[in-house]
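Example 3.2
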Amino acid sequence: MIRLLTLFLSIVWLTGCSSTAIEEYQDNQPKFNVEAFFQGDLVAHGVLKDRSGKVTRSFYADLKGSWNEGVGTLEEWFVFDDGERQERVWTLTPNTDGTYTATAGDVVGQGQLETAGNALFMKYVLRVPYDDDTIDLNVDDRMYLVTPDHLINESVLTKFGFEVASITLSIRQKAHPVE
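Structure, written as tokens:
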């Protein structure tokens, strides 16, 4: 009985640790061009869920992207349903292999961003307020371009390998992109 339980738990653990690789989206359209999508004015709407999947907050955000000599700046202004406001400024620096290094004031170290087909995956550690202190959470962002000017983003936030929250949001360009 103990062997059977151990085998079952091992299978569940291994299955839970597997993740879809970004290369799975290589042939999907429309192709995600980071510099084209995150250019100009954008708007986002989303929800934050606790670890049980219950929506605990909703928000909208105005975003503004710009590029200078290949380096991107993405400014984000969030307004939550309880009135809280947050700001974040990302710097997206291209790497020679086609990926980007992503930094922001509340990001610990550097995030890594990569694209394939219509997908953009980004992993980073976010420092968030918690009680009277802060806590560092691992963030796994998965963005999928559904039209040239609209994406769906799913984020999973973990601590010590356990999911503590998730975010689902939609981001769209305010003006249709020129290609």
